[in-house]
Structure formats: structure tokens, C-alpha cells
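note to self: dont lose this again. the chain is below, predicted strucutre after it. 288 aa total, dont forget to put it in the shared folder this time
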Amino acid sequence: MLTEKEIKAPNGIMFIFILLALQLATFAVVFNGISNQSGMQTAIGLVLAVPVFICWFGFFMVNPKEARVLQLFGKYAGTVHLPGLRWANPFYSKSRVSMRVRNFESGKLKVNDNNGNPIEIAAVIVWEVVDSAEAVFNVDDYEDFVSIQSESALRNLATSYAYDHHDNDEISLRSHPNEISKALKSEVQERLAKAGVNVIEARISHLAYAPEIANAMLRRQQAMAIIAARQKVVEGAVGMVEMALTQLSEREIVDLDSERKAAMVSNLLVVLCSDEAAQPVINSGSLY
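---
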């Protein structure tokens, strides 16, 4: 596999003056030969003018954050990074490669998560070329390679994790965005390293259940939220009842037998766990 080899191309402004001087010199030789009717001098001037004229095709421009990959008859010669007007062998082919940071946003992919639920997922990949030789020679089209491999990595990630875990703290697509982003970046980088591409950031930009199960999953999430809230309410109510019984006993405010404690516990739990405010009932008689 080829790796980048940087070469220093001469300043093009300097070569303009050099070639201009050489070109004028060859023209002077030709005109002098014609004036003196010297066929040999004219022929020498024309022979020298041809390579000087060919050298004019060696100029090329390198923009900031851009590289030019040079090839000589199919052989990799090197890469020029220095910006500005440059000159190189006119027989070099000069391929332009952008080294700027770029974004790629995948389309919405429909895949099954780790639990087999159909979901829609999309991601944004921030990337840049760091090795121009690998980008040009190791893959056919590095931009197309980035898009296809990024979507492939996203599909593989979506099938490796569940959309959400309701019963434990395992990593899921919805509840652990930072961990998922790191896993996605690592997955994409592994696939794109051979193309000389560095992945700067990878994040999920869209995540939802597929339309055919969205309503059912929404009801499930609502039910799980209600159950979780009820559990917290019951835990708090039990603690408050326990505290009330303990303080009544420690302060010797009232002596309750088992039946009266059960009635008190029942009344307190109804009041504390009810969705609506309980209506008070005044007991003017005995419990018995």
C-alpha cells in the first residue's frame, strides 16, 4: 500500500522569469539566424525553443488546505502541500486532493436493533484526508468510499445495541449518546483508515422507532414511566408510614395494637399513593 511522500516543488513565480528569459533567448537566436541567413543557427534556436515551450506546461496552483498528487507515467512521484503557484516536471500528472474538513450525513437507514425492533437511524460523520496517496491510490473513489463505509458501520452499530433498555443500565442507542458516538467513531475509523481518512467526529443525528411499531413502543415507554413513578411513590409512602409509626411509638403519643396499626397503615397508604386528594372522614366513634 502506498503512503504519502511529500516533495518540494519550486516557486512558480521564479520559474516564470527563468522561462521567460530562456524563451526570449531562443527567439533571439532564431531571429539572429534568420537575419544572418544561417540555417544551422536557426535550427539550433528552434530546437532549444521547443523544450522551453514545453516547460511552460509545468505550472500548477496549490490552494490552502489542498494537495497535488504527482505521477510520472503511472508512477507515484510525490505530493505537494505548499500553497501557491508551483512548477514541476511538465510530464507529471497532477491530481487535486482536498485536505479540508468535510461533513457526511447519511440518509435515514431502517435496520433492526439488537432486540429485533425495526428502527430508523442516521448519523453525521466529520472527516478529513490525512494521506493523499492512500486516498488516491488505495481506493477507487475515496469520497464514495467514505459514504458507503460510513453507512455500513452505522448499520453494524445499530444491530449491536438495543434502542433502549428499560430494566437495566446496559448501553443503548438512546440512553448513552456519548458511548455510542465513541463506538461509531471507532467503527468508521477502522473502515476508512485504508483510504487515508481521519474521522474527527461521528454522532447519531436521527434515532426513532420505525413507523409500524412507533405507537406500540410509545405506549410501552409511557407504561414503563408510570410504573417507575409508582415505584418511587410507594417507596416514599412506605418510608413515611414507617417514620410515623416509629415516632408515635417513641414519643408515646398513642398505643396502637396490631389492628389499629393496620388500619392506620392502610389509611396513610391510600392518602399518599392516591392520584387525587383523599376526602377526609372523621371517625367519632371507636374502631371496634
